[in-house]
Design goal:
The complex is a heterodimer of chains A (138) and B (1167). Chain A contains four helices and five strands. With 138 residues, chain A is of the alpha+beta class. Chain A is globular, with a radius of gyration of 15 Å. Classes of the chains: A alpha+beta (138), B alpha+beta (1167).
Chain lengths: 138, 1167
């Protein structure tokens, strides 16, 4: 079973990537990177409606043979991408949505946290959250 | 065919099935008529023609034999699902209809014989088709056009006879007249054939269905599938695609109900693949792409795990790849026919997946087929079959038709597998993969998936690498690298770079090798330290003109070849200098150049720092650092160079200045003196060059455009600016790399002037005056300021009209005219000694009111010494001042009668008064030097026009008035008459004598002149005395050319007694005047009403006494008797003053004076 969490900036460079298990990580990086095509297209299709509608969850981006790729985009165009093993039937749309919401909240928390001090990786707190989430589903 | 293609779909599966009709009795080689008929059948078959495939065969052609009908299936055990020849048989061998062409006219003389021959031909065909349901039809080729049906009695008789003879129904006999409308006849014919063919296929379907009842589920499972497939296929031939689809679906479900075992799994998969292909194809044809996709997904899910024999796992991967590729092809074909695909559902995904399975196939093959070279291909070839083909689709050649799940001959099985493995070894997998990938790339390009496209191109590149086509691999990888770089996906970039480095190593491409090494050592690389260290050592070797160590995981044979190439490179002399432009990638040396200030004065040296930082694991030396500017003269001052020995390069000392220590920022400071001609210009760093290696070995020039920065630095700068991270404190001489910003240009500005400029003047300026402004320049320089120049005047860039209405001059004594300029540029002032003070008066004349900006710009040359170098530089200082211009005074003019009553018109020849009023508006006192009334020709003065306001000084708000007595001769035109103008000569009251006088000309208003018939004026003393006679003379003047009858009467007043004519009628001749003399005798003192004179003109009833009142006095002042005279003299004077006092309050003293003068002049003024 494999699960991959990813965070990508408005300019589409990766902010945070984590995958479990770690083997074949490169392939997942590629998967996440290519899924941004669909995210970009969805954002541009939604256009201004996105802001009014406030629906940040983009749903299933595209199916591959073995994985399902889900997307989520914040109002400031930070993108979250999740790659889940196709065989994992326990994760339905609702669960994915709530996982994204959790990730978003956690991301907002660390971005707003003024007390992150020198030398500390801002994504450390994020990391623990992601870890606990992955533990639950894997 | 041989097994390697047994997962390829056969042609007969992929084509569109069409009814098969054979034409016999046509000699298309020697008979022109037959040839034309055949051409009409087969040429130009567009979509609107019925779907039939025709074939010309000889009349005695042997059709495939029909096997004897089985009466019972009880003991029948099928050997496979579908025979390999079956589809082809029904597409190309067994016709639905055989047409016998025969040349026969209805009026054929030898009818009997011909009829017999025709019947024989039909019989032969029937013989050959023994046991089949194939229809037979006869077409008579006739030379004559047939008559309409029913008219030709012989024809219908003979037709019936022929049908009888040939045992044909009337529907199967056709006549083809060989006339002009051949194609039309042919189309009608083939439509009829099509109907026959459909009937045939219908009966075939019924026939196959009829077998079903004999089958049982235990032994005939295979037959269920076979029959269902046949029904579907016949339906397709019948062009009944809906039923075909339905039957294929059933067949598909039946295939998966078969008991699967390792021995028959290939057959099941093959058939499932065939049927799936048919279903998907029909779904696309019915324009239900979602059904097609759903079916395909189902198919893949069902078959994915049916790998079969583990030793032949690559076969399964190949089969999977084929499934995806075929589906992609179908999808793509449907798109070409008008289907619309979307980004997330397009053929690209299927090609990609096909490529993925092809890769898997390659992997499995390399794992399973790595036989030792001593293993030879088994003989006899187990893949050979007696007929050369397989009997059933998807079976093993060495055990055809064996349904048992147990392997009867394990040895044979082993040989079979071995031969398959050995054959797989020879397959060019990379080629297959690359083809599929490039198909996918083409699709993703179409559906806006740039990243997917890049990813696939990376895979293509890697595949080319595996295929040892390094040049192509490098080309592809290089193409996509920048996309990953620009989006900052460093892990992916590193992986691509690693492959690219291997390619460039194996090809011994020096420049590429160096470039990729530079980037892999850089901060964007996610390689581990040991890897970086290895790459850096290799790079140093390359710089020393040695061969690098091979990259890991490279093909050994390729490494050997490349080592030879490297050795050749080493021996080659020359072309060992590589210039690498770094802004397009992320090298391991970062550079930032920074001018210390955005601008430098020309008399101070320009200073800048170049910061360098290396990200590689070991310290690295460089041989030269040089900076280029837009003005190349400065390049020579900004070079750091150190010749070092070749052996020093490995010495890892961090002491030398020319060494970059990882993680430490190195600063190089430069300074140079700017050229004086560059004042006002920008000095820009156009490039920074860092030279690694030496010219004796290899030399790499890292070239940063502008002041440094590479592909990632702009993004990093943005992040650093946004980051709120606190940075640890560093020692004073160190800086945080992130906080450094590039400043690649600076301005050279002129030296700060050391002089003061002061302006002395008294604003506001008055219109048209020569406004004096004194500029004081004082030098605080320590040496002589040479060539001092003053530019003074209106600041350019203001309203264009101001330029016209502003004049500047250095000479204030004489008034300037409009030809003077608004700006005096570069007035030479000479030299200024240290401490010297210089004053320059500037005179400005402003013709209009309003604010103006004036510029005073002093420039001079001075010698200074910068860094021991003497330069002559020009300094300048400018001052601007805004000066308001106002009117000095307002002038009001009015016309009044001699009785000071306001006049809106004057009477010809009758004197009137012109009053002027000058009201000072200037904040400074002004002196009216003189004033002058310049009358026009139509006006004449009554007395002297001397000025009364000469040398009057007016303070703000004060006014000076004058009045002039004028007369206007009669004029002919009734409209206005020009009065003339009023010239005021004035100047600012100032102690300076030289201020010139300004003449302000005021044009006086026009006045309407009216003539009157009679003018009366009275001649009387200025005052009377009680009881003393007061003689009054009235002059009645006839102003017309007519004799006038005048009635004159005098009405008595209480204050006077009078003598004279009380009432009289008289005549006055034209131009003459009549004198009336009265003697009034005042009775009371004071201001008394005179007895009033009434004049009536007979000819001019409009002439009223009202008008008369304007000319003659109505009152007079009567003084007391003479004996009081002396005593009252002073008091009467006081009284006058009291009367005048209201005027005195409002106007200036001058008016006072002028009034008094006028009062004392007895002729003109009465109060």
């Amino acid at each position: 079973m494999s699960l991959q969490g990813d965070l990508s900036s408005p300019q589409n460079y990766p902010l945070y990537i984590r995958s479990v298990p770690t083997e074949n990580e490169l392939k997942f990086h590629y998967t996440v990177h290519t899924s941004l095509d669909v995210v970009d297209e969805k954002i541009s299709a939604m256009g201004k409606a996105l802001v009014d509608q406030r629906e940040l969850y983009l749903g299933l981006l595209y199916p591959t043979e073995d994985y399902k790729v889900y997307g989520y985009v914040t109002n400031s165009k930070v993108k979250f991408v999740m790659v889940v093993d196709s065989s994992n039937t326990a994760l339905r749309d609702n669960e994915i949505r709530s996982m994204f919401r959790k990730l978003h909240n956690s991301y907002t928390d660390i971005m707003c946290n003024p007390s992150i001090t020198r030398g500390q990786d801002p994504f450390q707190a994020f990391d623990t959250m992601v870890n606990s989430m992955m533990m639950q589903v894997c | 065919m041989t097994p390697p293609t047994h997962w390829d779909f056969p042609v007969e599966l992929c084509c569109r099935p069409m009814a098969f009709v054979t034409l016999t009795g046509l000699d298309v080689v020697y008979n022109a008529v037959h040839r034309a008929v055949w051409d009409a059948f087969c040429a130009n078959r567009r979509a609107d023609r019925v779907p039939i495939s025709f074939k010309v065969l000889p009349g005695d052609h042997e059709y495939p034999k029909c096997r004897t009908k089985r009466t019972s299936y009880e003991w029948y055990i099928p050997k496979g699902i579908l025979k390999t020849g079956w589809m082809n048989k029904h597409l190309n061998l067994v016709p639905a209809l055989v047409v016998v062409f025969y040349e026969l006219d209805w009026d054929e003389p030898q009818w009997k014989e011909k009829q017999l021959e025709c019947a024989t031909r039909v019989e032969i065909v029937r013989q050959s088709l023994q046991g089949r349901n194939t229809k037979v039809a006869v077409v008579l080729i006739q030379k004559k056009t047939p008559l309409p049906p029913g008219e030709d009695v012989i024809a219908s008789e003979r037709a019936a006879a022929l049908c009888n003879a040939c045992d044909l129904s009337g529907k199967s006999l056709f006549v083809l007249p060989h006339t002009d409308h051949l194609v039309g006849y042919i189309i009608r014919l083939e439509n009829a054939f099509y109907e026959h063919a459909q009937t045939y296929y219908y009966t075939e379907i019924r026939r196959v269905k009829s077998h079903k009842e004999f089958l049982n589920k235990t032994t005939h499972q295979l037959l269920f599938v076979r029959h269902q497939f046949k029904i579907a296929f016949f339906s397709e031939l019948k062009q009944d695609t809906q039923n075909a689809l339905k039957n294929y679906r059933t067949a598909y479900n039946l295939v998966h109900e078969l008991r699967a075992h390792e021995t028959n799994i290939l057959e099941i998969k093959t058939m499932a693949g065939f049927i799936n292909y048919k279903i998907c194809r029909l779904c696309f044809q019915h324009n239900t792409p979602l059904d097609a996709i759903a079916q395909f997904r189902k198919h893949i899910d069902l078959c994915k795990k049916k790998i079969g024999s583990a030793e032949l796992a690559f076969e399964h991967a190949a089969w999977m790849s084929k499934q995806f590729q075929a589906f992609g092809d179908l999808f793509d074909e449907a798109i070409k026919l008008g289907l619309t695909a979307i980004q997330t559902q397009n053929p690209g995904f299927y090609y990609q997946q096909a490529a993925y399975y092809a890769q898997e196939r390659k992997q499995l093959a390399s794992m399973l087929c790595n036989h030792d070279s001593s293993v030879t291909y088994p003989s006899p070839d187990p893949l050979e079959t007696p007929t050369g083909v397989l009997d059933f689709y998807g079976q093993r050649p060495w055990r055809q038709g064996i349904l048992s799940f147990d392997l009867s001959d394990p040895e044979k099985e082993k040989m079979g597998i071995l031969s398959l493995q050995l054959k797989e070894k020879n397959v060019l997998h990379s080629e297959l993969i690359i083809t599929l990938l490039s198909n996918a790339v083409a699709q993703f390009k179409k559906y806006k998936c740039p990243r997917m496209k890049s990813h696939l191109m990376v895979q293509m590149g890697e595949e080319y690498y595996y295929a040892k086509d390094y040049a192509k691999a490098l080309k592809l990888l290089d193409y996509v690298m920048c996309e990953y770089r620009s989006e900052g996906w460093w892990t992916l970039l590193t992986s691509i770079l690693t492959t690219a480095l291997k390619c460039s190593y194996l090809m011994a491409q020096l420049k590429d090798y160096i470039t990729y090494s530079l980037e892999l050592l850089g901060r964007a690389s996610t390689l581990k330290e040991d890897q970086k260290s290895r790459i850096e050592k290799n790079l140093i070797k390359v710089l020393m003109n040695e061969s690098p160590d091979p990259e890991p995981d490279c093909d050994t044979a390729a490494v050997k070849a490349s080592q030879k190439l490297w050795a050749d490179r080493v021996s080659l002399a020359g072309s060992n200098i590589f210039t690498i432009e770094v802004q397009d990638f992320i090298p391991f040396v970062q550079c930032k150049a920074k001018f210390l200030a955005p601008s430098f004065h020309v008399d101070v040296p320009v200073q800048f720092d170049v910061y360098l930082r290396a990200d590689c694991p070991h310290p690295i030396r460089f041989s030269k650092l040089c900076i280029s500017f837009n003005n190349q003269d400065y390049n020579q001052y900004c070079v750091v160079e150190e010749a070092y020995q070749k052996s020093d390069i490995l010495e890892q000392s961090s002491q030398g200045t020319m060494c970059l220590v990882p993680g430490k920022t190195r600063k190089f400071s430069f300074k140079f003196v700017a050229k004086t001609e560059d004042v006002g210009k920008k000095i820009e760093i156009t490039s920074v060059d860092l030279i690694l290696g030496s010219e004796s070995g290899r030399c790499v020039i890292l070239n940063w455009r502008g002041g440094g920065g590479d592909a990632a630095s702009s993004q990093e700068a943005l992040q650093a600016a946004r980051s709120f991270k606190r940075r640890p404190k560093l020692p004073d001489n160190e800086v945080h790399w992130d906080t450094l910003t590039i400043q690649a240009s600076t301005m050279i500005i002129s030296r700060v002037p050391n002089i003061s400029v002061q302006l002395r003047h008294e604003p506001p300026a008055l219109t048209n005056e020569m406004y004096c402004l004194i500029v004081t320049v004082e030098s605080h320089e320590e040496t002589v300021a040479k060539d001092v120049k003053l530019t003074a005047g209106l600041k350019p860039g203001q309203d264009a009209n101001l330029t016209q209405k502003t004049q500047v001059t250095l000479h204030g004594t004489d008034a300037c005219d409009d030809s003077f300029p608004a700006l005096l540029p570069d007035i030479p002032v000479g030299d200024l000694q240290p401490g010297e003070k210089l004053e320059k008066p500037i005179y400005i004349r402003c013709g209009t009111v309003g604010a103006r900006m004036f510029l005073f710009y002093i420039s001079y040359l001075i010698n200074t010494v910068v860094e021991g170098k003497e330069i002559l530089c020009r300094c300048h200082r400018d001052e601007t001042v805004t000066i308001d211009t106002v009117f000095p005074f307002d002038v009001a003019v009015k016309f009044v009668s001699t009785k000071l009553e306001h006049l809106d018109r004057v009477f010809a020849d009758i004197p009137f008064l012109l009053m002027t009023d000058i009201l000072s508006a200037s904040p400074w006192p002004i002196t009216i030097v003189t004033s002058q009334l310049q009358l026009s020709a139509s006006m004449t003065p009554v007395d002297q026009l001397e000025s009364y306001v000469g040398n009057v000084v007016l303070q703000t708000g004060e006014s000076a008035s004058e009045c002039f007595c004028l007369r206007c001769p009669p004029v002919t035109n009734a409209s206005g008459v020009a009065t003339g103008c009023y010239v005021i000569s004035w100047k600012r009251s100032s102690p300076v004598e030289s201020v010139p006088v300004v003449n302000t000309i005021i044009t006086l208003p026009h006045v309407i002149v009216e003539s009157i018939p009679l003018h009366v004026n009275a001649d009387l003393p200025s005052f009377g005395r009680v009881r003393e006679s007061l003689p009054v003379r009235y002059h009645l003047q006839n102003k017309t050319n007519l004799v006038q009858d005048v009635e004159v009467s005098v009405e008595p007043s209480d204050a006077f007694m009078f003598s004279g004519l009380k009432q009289i009628r008289l005549r006055i001749l034209p131009g003459m005047q009549q004198e009336m003399l009265y003697n009034f005798y005042p009775l009371m003192a004071g201001y008394q009403q005179l007895p009033s004179l009434h004049v009536n003109l007979m000819r001019f009833p409009n002439f009223t006494n009202q008008l008369l009142r304007r000319f003659i006095p109505t009152n007079i002042f009567v003084k007391v008797r003479l004996q009081f005279n002396h005593a009252m003299k002073n008091r009467s004077f006081d009284f006058l003053r009291i009367i005048l006092s209201p005027f005195a309050q409002n106007s200036a003293f001058s008016f006072h004076c002028c009034c008094l003068q006028n009062i004392l002049s007895p002729k003109t003024l009465f109060i």
